[in-house]
Design goal:
248 residues, alpha/beta, Rossmann fold, three-stranded antiparallel β-sheet, globular, binds adenosine-5'-triphosphate, transport, ATP hydrolysis activity
Amino acid sequence: MGKPAIFPLEVRGLSVRLGGHEALRDVSFAFDGRKRVVVLGANGAGKSVLLRTLHGLIAPTAGSIRWANSSQRAASQAMVFQRSVMLRRPALANIAYALAVSGVAEPERSRRAREAIEHVGLAHLSQRQARVLSGGEQQRIALARAWSLKPRMLFLDEPTASLDPAAAGEVERIVTRIHGEGTAVVMTTHNLGLARRFADEIVFLHEGRLTEHTAADLFFTAPASPEAARFLQGELPWSIASQPSSPA
Ligand SMILES: Nc1ncnc2c1ncn2[C@@H]1O[C@H](COP(=O)(O)OP(=O)(O)OP(=O)(O)O)[C@@H](O)[C@H]1O
């Protein structure tokens, strides 16, 4: 028997209030799980809050999130953050720990951890303490950790922020491969080059509101909303903000 469907993901009238601030306002969209979605918007637009809410880390104030017509959070979803927390143990053990927490027993756990670290090209660093790895290597371990869980939905919040171009390119290749193997991907990024190369669809947020959800080529050539046009012309504040670390 095949796995139960988790798509479409349907978001209706989603609002999130945090500390008296309306971070998301009446956001609605649907996602079929096949297109690669990149969420764009100026600083403070609500991109991270949207991903965290979809991943179940923040409770909506209003509205609904439905996975395949169910209000149950989808099983088999994972999230990678701008700076993922590495545990004080070797790189391979960080991946094995995530598998153990999800109930994967030995010897399957070790097999999948090794497969995942090979998948991101870091098998040679298996026994190196994860916390001494470079930022790019830690991000690849975070992706391996998420990938080892075989998620069907992967949320990526600024996965290439603070990385040099070579490390960012490696992360992009890994994410592209993970998507190619059948995992749905929704990503935020401050890297417009990455967004142009990766996205099939753009969700654009402005001050907590979704102002457009459109095919990426159309978005970059003829954005429909004035806010998106100003954003693409560089008129809206947009830089990498420092964000708190979060566990994968
Ligand atoms: N825990 C919180 N309490 C209060 N306000 C919050 C909280 N988390 C986020 N916010 C606010 O919600 C808004 C949206 O934040 P979010 O982190 O989603 O922005 P973003 O689009 O990811 O921005 P950036 O590009 O700067 O990372 C911001 O104004 C932020 O200050």
